[in-house]
Amino acid sequence: MTRLKAISYLSPNLFWLYQEVVQAIARRCDCLIELIGATCDPLDDPLLEHDQVDIAFICGLPLIRHNRIAKQPLEILAVPVMQGDRYQQQPIYFADIVVRADSNFYELGDLAGSRFCYNDRGSNSGYNLIRYRILQHLKSQTLPANHQFFQSSQASGSHQNSLQWIASGLADCAAIDSVVMAAELRQFPKLAQSLRVIDSIPSPIPPIAISSRLYDQLGDKFIQEMRQPLTEPDQSLREAMQLAEVSHYTTASMDDYAEIGFAYDVAIATNFNIL
User: What Pfam families would the database entry show (predicted)?
Assistant: First the structure.
């Protein structure tokens, strides 16, 4: 029986959904899949570096950065499309710029001189997208890229921590994955009363990726069998998707994620960091 190793580098508040996803694949493909939660950044993970991961739930930015240096790149198996009008039936999500509800921050420019927190510097939604947005803002204001925008910035360790820091007054703002925030507010609805979104930056949503090695080892037919339970979910997975507010899964290619790499490259080329 085929045995596969899956890992999630995404927020743990949706780990239960990823378990349902791999179980649906295992049922369809008659294989065994072990899913673990990552304990380090994907670009620092020896499992990913040495191609010991078969399936990865991963953010778009580390996916792109990994593939630029990997001998065995990751391919996209499927991507979720979230429920709700804001997602327009497209495989996107948002970096929601969040502040305290009772603050005087109403747009990006108001955040100059504020205290910023972020989950980690390798995050697309928590760091990459807002860094690019600020860089564009500085350009529009004819300020140099090395202009210090925030008074301070600090890593919180997770999107959930960043939300708590803002609610408790430890930080003024953060950029939060909209899917993660929705899941957190479903679990802790009172938290919504303390928070307000002042801007949203759209981006391709974190995909389900697989090692390209699987194409050589198992063939295209097996890959199609892995994808089918996602695009044609059974009752068990449909129920989990409904709870997670996933409309459906669809296909995508690495070309769809080029804009994430572009935002990253622009910031690196101008030597601009939020810190």
Answer: Phosphonate-bd (PF12974)
